[in-house]
Every structure is written in structure tokens, then in C-alpha cells.
């Protein structure tokens, strides 16, 4: 197994700027919508600046569930505020690029968020990847996080400000 090339997407009932702010807050350690699967902690700089680094921990059995923890560092390589965030995994159990894309849907009150993950297992994860479908687990966790993001932003939206939608997915 050389690596993964996965794309996970969802449509959330919030404009791109709200989704962008929630994404950056999560990478700064907010732990509001990617938990229990992933937690993030700033390592240096800001995640929305080229060169900024974030430490990522994947909690394979949830934050409180024990199990192996997959740790790696993502360095920001490209930013288009409100639209795109590109990173490179530079240390830990993954190496390779990943990107987040935000695209307005319809009148702009909804956003398609997508993550393209092209990580390659590194170190001890190479052995685990031979017996566990790491790609499937990644997509399940990312899809669940996007649903949680949609639910969070729906709670934050003033009543009556948008039509009922997917709650996080379409």
C-alpha cells in the first residue's frame, strides 16, 4: 500500500465564510465538530498562513476510548481565504498532501466542503494499514465530522435565517 487518494464531501447549510471560520477554529484546537475522531493543536504559526503547522491526533476509538492514537503534523502549503486550504503531512504516521475546498451552493447560503486526502502511511502505521482499512476509517470519520459541522453551524444560525436543509449532508 503506497497511499490513499480519498475525497469526502458534504453540503452544509451555512455560507462559505462561516464554514471557513469553523474549519480554522477546529485546527486551532476548538474541538467542536471533529471530535471524537480527531483533535488538533497549533504547533507553530497559524493554520491559515503558509508555513503554519498543526499537530493532528486521530483517536481510533474516540477521545475517551483508548486504542491507538495516530499522530502527525500538517504544514500549510497554500491558502485562498474562504475557499481553499492545502497542507502537507510532514511528520508522524502520514506523509503527503491534503486539501480542503469550500464552494458556495445555490445562492451562497450553503457550502460544499470537500477534503482530498492523499496521505501515505509512515512508520508503524504501514504495518497497521496491512490489517486495517485505514482509508475506510478515514472517510467514515471525515463524513461524520462534516455532518457534525453542519449540525453545529445550524445551531449557531439565527432562527429563520436559512431554509431547512440537510443538517450536514446532501
From TrEMBL:
One Pfam family linked to the record: Polyketide_cyc2
Cited Gene3D superfamilies: 3.30.530.20
Name under which the protein is recorded: SRPBCC family protein
InterPro entries linked: Polyketide_cyclase/dehydratase, START-like_dom_sf
Source organism per UniProt: Streptomyces cacaoi
